[in-house]
Every structure is written in structure tokens, then in C-alpha cells.
Amino acid sequence: MAIGESQLDGDGGPSEDVEAQFGWRYTFGKVMQDTTARWGLYVVAFVLFVSAYTMVDSNLSRLTFGAVSDFAMAEALPIFDHPERIPPPGEIEGNVPPAFHVDGTLSHPLGTDPDGRDYFTRIVYGAQVSVSVGIVSTLIGFVGGTIVGAVSGFYGGRVDDVLMRLVETVYAIPPLILIIVFTVFISGGTPDITYAIIGVGITFIPVFARIIRSEVLSVREMDYIEAAKASGVKNRNIIRRHVIPNSFAPVLVYATLQIGVTILIVAGLSFLGFGAQPPTPDWGQMLNVSHGYMHSNVWLSIWPGMAILVTIMGFNLFGDGLQDALDPRTND
Amino acid sequence: MGLLRYTVARLIQAIPVLIGITVITFILANLAPGDPVRLMLQGQQVDQEVIERVEQQYGLDRPIHERYVTYMANLLQGDLGHSIQRDRPVTDLVVQRAGPTLMLVVSAYAFALITAIPLGILAATRRNEPADHISRIVALLGVSTPSFWIGIMLILVFAIQLGVLPSSGLVYPWWGPDHYGYSGYPELLYQTIRHLLLPMVALGTLQMATLMRVERTQMIESLQGEYVKLARAYGVPERTILRKHAFQVAQLPIITIVGLNLSTALGGAVLIEYVFNINGLGRLLLEAIIGLDYQLIMGITVVIGTMFVIGVIITDISYAYIDPRVTYGDRE
């Protein structure tokens, strides 16, 4: 086939053809050719942009077509915690319905929550929380899983047996339950978003470890590993320089899909009250609060869920596209 | 004969996993910073003497491996410990609450299978037609939407806006019609279904979406098989081919997916029980966590892990039963 032929091109090193087939630019091009994957990428880029923007610019009132009270702003932002600030009477305008409602105003396009905080602002700031949670805990699982999986797959034998039995056992406890129990135990009964991130990350180490391991098992048999061993390279360096880089692609795809899953799980944790705590504007936590207002303020339950749905859909579409692009079987 | 041997072998294989679950839960429970007695007292000022007495009562003054051995010895006799919060044996509480959770999970699967299989076949036979595109969108939405938010939206529409279905609790048919004051078994059945409908859909949507995509892929593959070509060449009607030749083979991966996804479903049940106020294991776990009732938390985790392991064994065995190609491990 094309790959085999081009490798025999005479000049020794991998030809451009091989690089073109597996390079990042080629993968990106394939993703962009796929309409749904492209839209997924747009959504992911948008959510990432929004969360980066809110980290830099903390005054969003210009986006809400009018002045949002200081109190509403301060309380909406995770970085501006002002618990001591007591709002002057008359400044709070709680339970304002969304703009399209008869009683709605344009200064609060999505209405306000019972505490008078602008809901649109809170939703926008929620992106920052969800995205950082998704990325950081996926990263923990990814790095931890890569180390465990690479060691397990490379050394094999007893190390592999023990580690894989452990992985299997962790698999047997439903992730959400393991995460809740783990988070509560490490936090000693005072849950917080930081513990949730660590808990989710550690719980997903086995998942990543298993994928990396199966890749490593095939990479291990390659000639270049044999060559490295023969020239006396230390095992640690072989793992770091040769094994891990070459087993990377499938794990990367999985990590992209995993960010969506993580956001979903952390939203569930926060919804149950074991993740982000008020006043952090986390989408799951907002749904927890709105659960008590389902009869009176319907909109409070709708927007955060929509935000979660769109974000996760973006990551899923992009991840699927990436998978297709990196999977040699779908290359025509 | 072979099947029986396979079943026994499969059960024996599960033992290390079950032991592993208890080890992990036990370590987690002992990982908590600070000693559990102080956490239980939640900052109340008590004499050192009282603390020591409580520690002795629960055996907390002994080294961890000794405590684990005691815990396992009790576990084998069906004793999961004692709930401090409720002052009752954990086993009693767990048995009482397992029914609703099982009912919820099983019905969610029933819903998922009943909808996913026909829709998956429809999408496979009408590939790249509108029906296929719609099924893709439904699957994408199903995978990306948090189950608890689906629950909230269902409550908003069917319970609050339309007022046709109840928004909380379940009716347990095993309590009999008299307990609820219903006229007889037909009404009991009717009420059971009415109460189960919304939580079932909320929990089952994710499974439905996953299974539908798998069913589509499998049917497409199966329809391209040699035996289908042969049947077509013999002039067997397309309907018969679909029903007899292609269908059966395509169902095997579905069984595996059902078993593996049981873990997600059991975790999701915690969220759905919270949304719909169902007194199952999930709600019991949440209450136990809020009360830092360690023995109860451990007990529930062990039981849910065991449920998952049993579920996987059942699917494995039914797979072997349906597919004659599985060799039960012995090659002759």
C-alpha cells in the first residue's frame, strides 16, 4: 500500500507522504472536511473562547444590553467573591423572567435568579467553570493513565497483572458512585469543586491506562524498541522517548471525548451538591438551585441544561470527527 | 454441559473482582483525613474518654488490616455493618432500598431496548435517508444531554405544564393494592406504570441513544454478510432476510453493550432518584454521605458494585447461550 511503498523510497528516512498521512495538518484537514466534526470544532472553539474571555474581562454588563447591578455582577463571578457586600434595598430584582416574556426586560435577556443575579452573566461565566473542570480532570486522568498504562504494558508480567486487576476492580464500581464516595472522603465531608476535579481525574486513570496499555503492547514489539534496547537505552527513557509518543493518537481522541463525559459527570456532581458550591456559577450547581423553583420559575431550569447540552455536543462531534480522521480504517 | 461449566467458571472469575471492590471501598473509607469519630461528632466538644469509647465500640483502635478481616468475616455472613445515623443494620436498609433501584434500572433498559432496536434497524435499512439522519440527531442529543436535566424537563412538561403524570415517587407493586388504597390489581399496575414512565425515560435515553447507534452499525454490517447475499440470490423476500438472517447476528454486540453500560445506568440512577424523589439505593447513598455514615456508604458501594458484576455475568452467559460460536474457554 501507499505507506509501505513510500517507506521504501530509498532515502532512508520517512518520506513526506508518510508525514502527510499522519501529521497534524493532515488530521486537522480531515476533521474540517467532515461537516458535523467541523461544527463540533466551532462549538468547542466558541466555548473555549467564552471561558478565556471571561477570565480576562470581568465586566460583562455591556453584553446584557444595560446596566447589571454591581451586586448581581459581583455575585455572578467566581473571581469576585464579595460575601461581605450587602446589597442596598431596592437594588435586588429577583425572579425577573427572560426578555421574550411579557414581564421580561432587555437588561436581563435570560432573566434573573431568586437572588437578583443576572442569569445570562452567570451562564456565560459557567463556561469557565465547566471547561476548566473538564480539561483539568481529563488531564489528571490522561497523565496518570499514560504513566500507569505505559509501565504496565511495557514491563508486562507481574506488574501488569497487578495493575490490570486493579483497573478491572475500579471498573466494577459505577464511576459516578465511586467519584461521589471518593470526593466526599478526600474532602472529609466538605465538598468543593477542587475535590471534585481531583476525584474525577483519579477515577479516570484506569480508563486511560487500559487504552494506553493496549497500544503499548503492540508498540513494544516494534523493531525500533528492539534497536533502542540493543543500543543500551534505559527502560525509563525507552518508555518516555519511544513508547509513549507512539501510542498517543488513540488516547488523544479518547481524551477529547472524555472532556465531554467529564463535564457531564461534574455537572451531575454539582447538581447533587458534591461539586461546585454557591456562589460559583456552575451549570450543574445552578440546576441544583433551580430544582427548588421548578413550579414558579421555569427558565431557571432550562438555560443551564441547554448550556451543558451544547458544550458536550460540541466535544462529542469534534471527538467523533477526530476519531474518524485518525482511524486508518476510515481512510479511503 | 459446556454452558454449565462456563457459568461456574465465570462465577469463580468474579470472586477476585468482588474482593477488590471491598478492598477499594475499605481503603477509601479509611482514607478520610481526620478520624471518622470526630467527623461523626461534627465539631461537637466531647471528652477524650467518650471518643475512645466510641472508637473501641467500632473497633477503630485496631490496625486497618485487622479491621478489614473482621469486616470481610461479617460480610460473608451477610452483615454489612451498622448504620450509625439510623441505628439499624446496613443489610436491612440496603435490601429495603434495592427494589426501587432495580425496578428503575430494569425498566430503563426495557425502554431503551424496545425503542433502540426498531429505530436502529430503520436507520440501517434507510441508510443516508431522512430517517437515518433523524436517528443520528436523536442519538447525538441522547448522548450529550445530562440525564438529570432530561428528568427535570420531563417534569416541567408532563407534570407541571400538562399535569398528566406524577413528578415524584414510585408505586411498588410488591406492596399490594391495599397499601395504596387502590381498587385492585389493574389500578395498581396502571399507577405503577404512570409513576415509572418519566424516570424510566430520563434514565433510559442515554442507553437508547448508545444502543441505537450500535444496532445500526451492526445491522449494516450484517446486511452485507455473505449469507445475506446468498439468501438474496435464492430470492428470499427482503423482509424475511431482515427478520431471520440479518437480525439475529446483529443482536450479539447489543448484549455486551447492555452489560457494560449497566455501570453508567446504576450511577445515573442516583441522579434520577434524586430528581424524582425515589427512595432507592442512590438516595440512601446521598443521605448516608451527608450524614457521614461510613458503614452505610461502604455497604451501598459494595452492593452496587456487586449488582454490576452480577449484571455483567448474566449478559456474558446469555451471550454464550445465544451465540453457539462461543467456546466456553475449552478448545477441542
Automatic annotation (TrEMBL), chain A:
One record GO biological process: transmembrane transport
The name this protein goes by in its record: ABC transporter permease
Record-linked PROSITE patterns: ABC_TM1
Main subcellular location of this protein, as a coarse class: membrane
Transmembrane segments: 39-56, 135-157, 169-187, 193-212, 251-276, 296-319
CDD domains documented for this protein: TM_PBP2 (cd06261)
Domain ABC transmembrane type-1: 127-319
Coiled-coil residue spans: none
From TrEMBL, chain B:
GO-annotated biological processes: transmembrane transport
Pfam families (alphabetical): BPD_transp_1, BPD_transp_1_N
Annotated Gene Ontology cellular component terms: plasma membrane
Domain ABC transmembrane type-1: 98-319
Subcellular location: Cell membrane
Similarity field: Belongs to the binding-protein-dependent transport system permease family.
Name listed for the protein in its UniProt record: ABC transporter permease
Organism, scientific name: Natrialba swarupiae
